[in-house]
Amino acid sequence: MSQIAAAANSPTADQPFGSASALNDLDLNSFLELMIAELQNQDPLNPLDNAQLLQQISQIREVGATEQLTQTLGSVLLGQNIASATNLIGAQVTALTDDGERVSGPVRRVTIDGGQPRIDLAVGPLAAAGTEEGDIEEGAYVYQVVWNGTDGQEFSFDVATNTANLSDFNGTIQLRNLPETDGEKRIYRTDATGEGDRQLVATLPNGTTTSFIDSVANSRRQATLTTTPQQLGVARRVTVNLSNIAQIEPPPN
Fold this sequence. Notes:
Layout: H1 4-7, H2 28-40, H3 50-86, E1 92-96, E2 102-113, E3 116-123, E4 126-129, E5 140-148, E6 154-162, E7 173-176, E8 185-189, E9 199-204, E10 212-214, E11 230-231, E12 236-241, E13 245-249
Parallel strand pairs: 6-11
Antiparallel strand pairs: 1-2, 1-13, 2-3, 3-12, 4-7, 5-6, 5-8, 7-10, 8-9
């Protein structure tokens, strides 16, 4: 009968270093089960000699040591990742979600999911320069995003921005991190003074839309907002992987 030692021979000369072998693919429990089965089914007229038994015991020790080392290294890596993640609490980060959405917000807490740290952000609406060219002149603007609740009541929140503070402004402004709503969102905007009437620049028919690029000139704005919606402070919880963080701003002292 073939021995475990024969099944676990070293790789041949044409195998790359570190390639999988029968022994490398076994965990400790499988190895012990295989060895016990071999001892139970060996030829009683030709049992293992002491040298063969010692060799297999040595192999068991190697498998056990490798498995323990792997577990230890995994625990050390998880501990380092958790420490890195918790050090970010309070910091402002920019990251990608699992769906590829770019979000920014302060880190509120750290959770463990599937043995990996996940970071919860409190993501609020913000304005940035759009990547396209548009007809918005330089100035200070206030956006008011309006939507209706399930009972018909109007809600809204404001996003203020000044093009002087936007990097690479080229006539468009992008609103990010908009909240998901039950129905459409209507987006109104002031003129370049940040004052005066708030007039419609877009309607987002899908309530799940969370970003919008505005390129509308002041003269092309439409209907004026004549109602007084209930103002809300809006932020949503977004969870991202530690590895998906692209930018970090340290928490304020």
